[in-house]
Structures are given as structure tokens and as C-alpha cells.
Design a protein that fits this description.
Immunoglobulin-like; mainly beta; single chain; 1 helix
């Protein structure tokens, strides 16, 4: 059985170069992450911010449209929960230490689980697709 851990989330907002609020970097315990991509501008900003994030996830329905509101849990292979958040868009960037993890992502009551290994100098990028989910979110 996978163990559960709790951590307080926090977020930091910075002003972008154009004076509008930039995407916020948030925290789950010591893990920093960013989520969004609801529009093209956010998608570009997130893709530009991928440096330093060991894991990049893209959430898609069976038609290839992005999904928001995806509950994501990341566990060490030992079963310890290290990350939990609900995405605010179809893209999720997570700063994870090198190691092996299990990702469990849930959308509309349908869970997808996959292993991932994070290397110290290489980013892991994954598309997570729900074949039964027909709703268009983004």
C-alpha cells in the first residue's frame, strides 16, 4: 500500500516583463512546480520555463486536447508520497531530484499510472492520455 504524506502548498507570484502577472511557482513541501497552459501565451511561458524542472507532464484527452484539473500524485518507488497537486492547465512542471518515481494522474475518476526515472542532467517529458475522457477542458 502506498503511504500518504501531507505538506502545505504555497505560491509565489512575480511580475512578468510586460507587467502582467507571470505564472506562479508553487510548492508541495520542498518540491517546486508550475502548472498552466490554458492558452497559447501560458503554454509558451511554461515551455520557456522548463529549465531546472526534472519532469514535464502534458495531460490530453483522447482527441489530443489539453485537460485541466488533473490530480497528480508522485511517489518514490519505496511508496512514499513526494508530490500532490491538481493541475490548473494541461502542462505540469515539477522539480524532482534524480531518482525513480511512480506517477498516478486522475482525471474524471479514471487513473493513469506510469513509472518515470529522473536523471540529474536530463528532463523527463511524458504525455498522459485518457482514452475514455471525451470532455474538452482547454
Amino acid at each position: 500500500m502506498l503511504s500518504m504524506a501531507r505538506a502545505q502548498g504555497s505560491e509565489r507570484n512575480d511580475e512578468g516583463e510586460n507587467g502582467r502577472a507571470a505564472l506562479a511557482e508553487k510548492r508541495f513541501g520542498d518540491i517546486r512546480y508550475m502548472s498552466g497552459g490554458a492558452d497559447r501565451e501560458e503554454q509558451i511561458a511554461l515551455l520557456d520555463a522548463t529549465r531546472g524542472y526534472g519532469l514535464c507532464l502534458a495531460y490530453l484527452n483522447r482527441f489530443g486536447a489539453g485537460l485541466a484539473g488533473v490530480e497528480t500524485r508522485i511517489y518514490r518507488v519505496s511508496g512514499r508520497l513526494v508530490f500532490h497537486a491538481v493541475s490548473s492547465g494541461p502542462l505540469l512542471l515539477v522539480r524532482l531530484q534524480a531518482g525513480s518515481y511512480w506517477i498516478i494522474a486522475n482525471s474524471g475518476g479514471e487513473a493513469v499510472a506510469m513509472p518515470v526515472t529522473i536523471h540529474s542532467r536530463m528532463r523527463a517529458a511524458r504525455q498522459v492520455r485518457w482514452l475514455r475522457t471525451t470532455r474538452l477542458q482547454v
